[in-house]
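ingest -> validate -> predict -> emit
validate: passed (alphabet ok, no gaps, 502 aa)
predict: started
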Amino acid sequence: MSYLIIPSGDEACSVRQQMTDYWAQFSEPTLENMMLNEDARQLAEQEETEILDSVPQVGGMRVLELGAGIGRFTRKLAERAKHVTAVDFLETYIEKNRQSNEHLGNVEFVCMDVTQLKQDNGQYDMIFSNWLLMYLGDDEIDKLVSSMLRWLKPNGYLFIRESCIKQSGNKKRQTNPTFYRSPAHYCSLLQGPSMKSAEADYRFTLRYAASVDVFIKYSGNPYQLLYLLRKTPTSDYFSSFQNFLDKHQYCLNGIKRYEAVYGDSFVSCGGKPVTERLCDRLDLQAHSRVLDVGTGPGGSAIHMASRYGCHVTGIDLSANMVTVALQRQASLPPAVRERLRFEISDITEREYRDASYDVIYSRETLLHVEDKAAVLAKFWRWLKPGGKLLITDYCQGEGQLRNEFLEYKSARAYRLLTLQEYGGVVEAAGFTDVQVHDQKDDFLNVLHQELNTFRARRQQFIEEFSESEFRDTVVGWEQKIARATDGSQVWGLIAAQKPSEE
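emit:
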């Protein structure tokens, strides 16, 4: 576990004192104190296995472990890595760690406030931190992230685990000054600072963030988040596009506006009714494992887990979308909650084991992806033999396209194919029984229904948002109807299957 990282300045001194006093209550080096949980021994082994399975292979690496505590992870990291530098600010904890792990011979133990830590540039292949940033202010995190960028080699990894939204442990405490941030807030903090060097300008790029499953099963808490980032050149497309989505189209207010039209937890055409019809095509069973690509605020994933009892992994590039999905997950019955896993990640960068899923389902998502062939090749690998693929997506019409449509496509950063081109890419990836449908009539019917329902809720919407946002939404839907009517914007349905093994 990790602890206090101390701010600077007068205000920082106050935070420092609060955190110092807080951890003085738990300075005895026990597992229960370190995890702030009376049930620590029941949780520890499963949690440690899940976390260590989430980090890159550390063989041959030099690892910096921040907030190493009594050594829950120090030993297991040191058994695999070339060298581990274990840092913690509590003397009792780091001494316990030393007693337990000094015999390994490749661990350096440092009792130090992490904000005061000095390390050589480019010294480490990975930095590992478990429950640390929640004890730092935003300014302190900014400085620490800048330092970690310097300490890591190019392409080095940063692994972070934090409690988001609320506390995880059940240990009684008199006060709790911990910062429980949103998952999206951490994404912003971790990817904000940059580092200039002679070779390139670097920053951290998120590879994925996901809940710790053990805590969902044990306490119904999906807010224990793992983050894996990598030190990459600042030109990296992922972080800039994620930033575009979360600050513009999918800002939190924008998501709420979409939900005002599509329904709670939905941001795809037709909302829940269309989702129900599409899912009925998939022959979902309780044993089915589904990958929902572009899960948004989780509506389709929640529906599949609730109605069919299947296990669903929902992935989305937007940190705001997944933050909303986690909030919805937290309110579900335990049996449904445990069948869901939401991730913040770029599908073009994410990897899963081959033959992991029975179904891959994606709604209006690949329109953001330039190289659809590469993503569809991944889908083919990730599906089990006989697995099903179902995609709905916006496509562009054939022939000359109006300037209004081209401007719309550019403003949204859409990368659109014609429907026939889309089907060809799916077939080229190795899928069989490829079915491609132009959903024009359904598209127009749904758009008119959505617009009529939205207009009927005018006063309620204005009270929550504004008159101008109401007008903007109406105009947006009217323009979409015009594009669908003239054929420039096509709503396509693509269904296919991975061949069964003979």
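The two ends are 50 Å apart (CA to CA).
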